[in-house]
Amino acid sequence: MFRRFDALTRAAGDGHPAGMTSPLHISRTPRPFDPDLGAETLTRFPDLSSDRAALIAGTGGTSPYLKSVLEQEAVWLTEALDDPQGAVARVFADCRALSFDQLKPGLRQAKRRVAGLTALADLSGGWTLEQVTTALTDFGALAADVAAKAEIATLIRRKKLPGQTEDDIETAAGMVILAMGKMGAHELNYSSDIDLIVLFDETRYDPDDFYEARQGMVRATRNFCATLSDRTADGYVFRTDLRLRPDPAVTPVCLATEAAERYYESLGRTWERAAYIKARACAGDIAAGEAFLQTLTPFVWRRHLDFAAIQDAHDMRLRIRENKGTGGPITVPGHDMKLGRGGIREIEFFTQTRQLIAGGRDRDLRVRGTVPGLAALAAKGWIPQDVAEKLTNHYRAHRDVEHRIQMVHDAQTHRVPKSQDGMERVACLMDLDLVELQANLKDRLTEVHDLTEGFFAPDAAPEPQAAPVAFDTDIIARWPTYPALRSQRGAQIFERIKPELLSRLSRTAKPDEALMALDGFLAGLPAGVQLFSLFEANTQLIDLLVDIVGTSHALAGHLSRNASVFDAVIGGSFFDDWPGEQVLQAELSDALAAEGDYERQLDTARRWTKEWHFRVGVHHLRGLIDGATAGRQYSDLASAVIASILPIVTAQFEAKHGPAPGRGMAVLGMGSLGAERLNSTSDLDLIVIYDPQGVEMSDGKRPLSTRPYFARFTQALITALTAPMAQGRLYEVDMRLRPSGSQGPVATSWSSFTNYQQNEAWVWEHLALTRARAVAGDASLGADIEAFRQEVLISPRDRTKVLTDVTEMRARLAAAKHPTDIWDAKTGPGRMLDIELMAQTGSLLAGNPARDVHSGLDAAVAVGVLNVADAQTLKDTYDLCWSVQTAARLLSGQGIEVEKIGEGGGAFLCRSAGFDQLSELEAALADGYAQANAVITAALDTTTLDRGQA
């Protein structure tokens, strides 16, 4: 636990190998405020080199506190300067060996030595800020651990902790000590108190012993805190502060972890979330502490972009300024380096709030330290690189000044001295001219304030010009009654963005239509604080919202139920090129692997999929991609989801029933998924094929014979894809294309599948096979299925029988499904399904393995079922149908009624199909249907079978 300091000092040192001493490197020295006192201190350090003598004289001649420490520990410090890292390590080891009766004096001597050596290493420039704060922090954790375990050992010996023995002392009998604030982030300042939260793992105790155990833990907590903070003749170790625990006014100083979890789940506030960014299990039962922090992940790191945290943080800053009196202008004497304007807390708030906003989505932002946090935010594009560098530089400089202020009298203060002498002492410790120090400080404080204040309280945007449109006031008047606007906070934020919303609505082609669409969106929105905060912080999203609600009813409805998908737009890569199926699968697999709980994995998959699904829809809506490209992207997404979900379902199932017999299973995508062309509302046609390779039963806790094993597994997979959860459902799944249809088993064995296809399958089932594609599962089985598919397709066929069966099938489809109107591009003679059937027929007769419609139509030409001109007619009509179908699904989620889609919807429909007017598109559809129907009817006329050979 305390290796961090040693590793950090080696990494930042001057290259000495581990195990070798490394003398303190002196690059600067303080000058003595009182040279006589400096000389007096130096008399305790005979025979020092000149640079070490200057360091001792400057330190002892300026800081009364350090003068006392140097004189008390002169012999030890003289030797420690030859190997500071080794000296600190030896202090730590000595503390571990202290007997109970020597604990108080021993820890105080250790604190004195660490404080003196750290001060000299800091003032000399021999250690970086990070090395200084790490040494102080690690000693704080060590002291807490030693003191706490000593109290626990006493209680165990007195039988005051039921069920605990000497063996439990090492884990403090379940006591968890969390380091908070600067202690948690390894940023402890020179005279800091330490913020701790103390809990205990109640699961280590019998329920009947709970109250006795808690009483013992409370006593141990009070005693170990007193060991650290009581002032004795030897001084004190650390002032301890336990007020960051849940509801400190009414709770004991040590709580059960379960009680703390309940509090944060139900009552936790934004400032507590921010505090837990830096939280770290530092002492006691480290494993239990880390497990507790893991349970708080959903509380600290919200799933959505949490821009509402900005207002919370801003309000907190204002309350601190009011309560502490630090809100005045920047004047260096008396300025609070921590809480004042432009101070340390401003940088910390800026960093932590940005982390809270985005850390739920990006684990790389979940770092404890302020400097690492700034670096992570810059690396991910959440703040400009130059801002991160400036704030990092100012943060380090501020901390240096803070340390010098505290070194003078070991006072827990952050205020720059008001007196001339006090200011001069700080300048002496920094070896700066007083005027130079003041000017430098004012410049830094001012720049920090300028860089951070705008983030929390941006200047008011200019009022939008009055909308040139007089909107229906009755519609606007009912908005406050909607669920999203019933909370006071939601209503307040919405009132701030409403003028901008109305102004942008007024600039749309049909403002009244856009207002009605926005009204529908707001009515369906269950909550508004997060979304409205998102819009307030990113007003460019309002244009996208207006575009969506004014064009696509389906996307707007999806948004009202899943407003968090807007997070993806802010993520930075929303408008990048499509990454492809393999990248998507890797990204989702990584996201699922990061979740330990099965249900949370399924919810994560749903949330992730909705964001990518939304992205495809927005790109299509805005003309960045066409319908064909959207179809391929929807297919890539579905394939990636199945391939990523399958392993987690497998792991969950195998935990109960053991590994799959044989080589497992493969999932076949059929229909549109197999052909890699889906629309925004497509369901997934799937077949599961398994190969037990002669194994009759699984080997697990609850073994199953092969057939029920794979049947139940398939049901588990379908449930994982289709079950409605907190984040909705992934896809609808259709398995009717499996052998024997809905009457057959949900999973088919490899031997049954091959036998069925070779000996029992109907022509329509071989037609379906032309589009089959393995999308997930065992790779070798998938390869075998593909080889078999191609073998079946090239088998000799009775051409007349195929065309006759296809003709009958076409007639049955026409009788069963009638087109609703001209805009139903899917069902009916000469429309999508009809042309797809013709393409599948061509592929089957030609033995062509390609799955797409164009390739199938080319195959039909190759075997003489179509001529080139007719094939082109069908291709053109199919492409037109697809563009209308995909646009219609995006607009309404189903078929469209042109008179209801509005001007924006009509324009999108025309743009997708490449026409200027709806009337032109309608005429083209009618003509295309008629021509395609005529071509297909003639092609299937078995009386002209030999025309292709003529």
UniProtKB/TrEMBL annotation:
What Gene Ontology molecular-function terms does this entry list? [glutamate-ammonia-ligase] adenylyltransferase activity; ATP binding; ligase activity
**In this protein, which residues make up the domain named Glutamate-ammonia ligase adenylyltransferase repeated?**
66-294, 544-786
EC?
2.7.7.42
Q: Which Pfam families match?
A: GlnD_UR_UTase (PF08335), GlnE (PF03710)
Q: Which residues form a coiled coil?
A: none
Instruction: List this protein's GO terms for biological process.
Output: regulation of glutamine family amino acid metabolic process
GO cellular component terms listed in the entry, alphabetical order = cytosol
Q: Which domain of life is it from?
A: Bacteria
Q: What class of enzyme is it?
A: transferase
For whether the record's keyword set contains Nucleotide-binding, the answer is: yes
Q: What region holds the PII-uridylyltransferase/Glutamine-synthetase adenylyltransferase domain?
A: 316-456
Q: Which UniProt keywords apply?
A: ATP-binding, Ligase, Magnesium, Multifunctional enzyme, Nucleotide-binding, Nucleotidyltransferase, Transferase
Protein's UniProt keywords contain NAD: no
Name the PANTHER family for this protein: BIFUNCTIONAL GLUTAMINE SYNTHETASE ADENYLYLTRANSFERASE_ADENYLYL-REMOVING ENZYME, GLUTAMINE SYNTHETASE ADENYLYLTRANSFERASE
Q: What name does the UniProt record give this protein?
A: Glutamate-ammonia-ligase adenylyltransferase
Coding gene? glnE
